[in-house]
Amino acid sequence: MKHPQDRPEHDRPPSNVPDEADVIVAGHICLDLIPDLGHAGLAAITVPGALVNVGGAVLSTGGTVANSGLALHRLGIATKLMGKVGDDPFGRLILDALRGHGSGMADGMIVSAGEQSSYSIVISPRGADRIFLHCPGTNDTFQASDVSDESLAGAKLLHFGYPPLMKDMYSNDGRELEKLLARAKAKGLTVSLDMSRPDPDSPAGQVDWRSILKRVLPYVDLYLPSWEETVFMLGANGTGFGTGAGAHTDLNTQTLALMAGQLLDMGAAVVGIKIGEEGLYVRTTGRADRLRQFGAAVPKSLTDWEGRELLVPCFEATVAGTTGAGDSTIAGFLCGLLHGLPLEETMTAAVAVGACSVEALDATSGIVPWPAVVRRIEQGWRRRTPALPMEGWATGTNGGCWIGPYDKHRSNPV
Prior knowledge:
Blueprint: E1 23-27, E2 30-35, H1 42-45, E3 57-62, H2 64-75, E4 79-82, E5 84-86, H3 89-99, E6 110-112, E7 119-123, E8 131-135, H4 149-152, E9 157-161, H5 167-186, E10 190-194, H6 209-216, E11 222-223, H7 227-235, H8 253-265, E12 270-274, E13 280-284, H9 288-291, H10 302-305, E14 309-312, H11 325-338, H12 343-358, H13 370-378, E15 394-395, E16 402-403
Parallel strand pairs: 1-4, 1-9, 2-7, 5-6, 9-10, 10-11, 11-12
Antiparallel strand pairs: 2-3, 7-8, 12-13, 13-14, 14-16, 15-16
Helix pairs in contact: 2-11, 5-6, 11-12
C-alpha cells in the first residue's frame, strides 16, 4: 500500500479544508437519529403498544454527502461537501455538525430558505438489518444547477449519491441527474455514482431505473451501488433478476457477473457492487478507449484496470453499527484510486475503511487517517472467509483477493 509522509500528525483527521478540493461529494444529506437499541431485537420493537427500553442516541449527519464526504476528509483527502438543507433547526444542526469536522466543511452547502431539512430515524435492531424512517426534505429540490461550474473548478472527481431519494434527480427520466453528470464529465472530472434503494411503493420505486441508468451511465466512470440496489434497479422491469420492483434474487457470483456486465454495456467504466459482509465485487470494462475517458482521477496503470473481475472479502471487525458502511467503503475505494493504487489494493482499501466504519455506532467516527488504515492492513488484519461459492474463481497472489472467470489477467478467462 502507498504511504504519504509518515509523520505523527497524519494519524489525526485534518481540522480544516484547503481552498481547492480534489473530490466534490454532492447529493443527499440528512440528519440521522440513531438510538442504541442494546439487546433489543426486531420482534421486540415491532410489537404494537410495546415500550422498549433503549440506551442513548447518537445524533449525526447521514447520506452520501456526510458519510462518504466526511470519511474522505478523515482519510486526508481534500473534499468539498455539496448538499442542500433548509434554514430550520435540523438544517442548523447539520451545518454545525459539518463545521465540527473542520472550519470550511460547510462552505459548499446550499441553504434554502423556508424548506424542511431532511432527517432519518435509524433503527438498527440486534440480529436484523437496519430500518430507516426517512423524510427527504430539501433533497427533493436539489438540481443540477445547485452544483455550479465554479464549484467544479480544480477538482479531480465528483461523487454523487442517492438520486432515488432526490425527487428532481429521478423525475423526468433522470434528466437533471444526466445534466449534472454530463457537465462534470465535460469539465474533465472523473464521475462516481452511488445509489440507494427506494421504497418500492413510493414514486421513486415506480420509476424505470433501467432507463435512467442507460441515460446516465455513459457519463459514469465508477458506478458503486449495493447488491440490493442493483437487483432493484435491474429487476424492476422483469429482466431476469426478479418479477417486480421488490423481487429478491439470491446472491451469487454468476448473477453478479451478469448484472455488472449489463451495467458496463450501458456505459460505465468500472462497476463495484457492495455485497455486505461478503465484501466488494468489481468488474471493469474491457474497452481501452472507455478507460481513456476516465477523467482527472485516471488510474496510474490503465492496463491494470482493464477487463478485470475481482472480489475482495471484508476484514474482521467488532461491529457496533452498520450505518454508513457502504458509503465509507466507497470513500476507501476513492482514496485508493487517488493514491494511485492498483485495482486489487484499491478494493482492499475500500473494505478496510468499511470495516473501520462499522466499529463505531455512527458512520464516520471509526475511520482513522489513511496511514493508520495502511498500517492495520500491513500488520496482518485478518480477513473473513467468503461464504459465497467461488467455483471457477482463483485466489490472488496477495492472499485476500479472488480473481473471477471474466478477468483478463487469468490464463483461461471465459
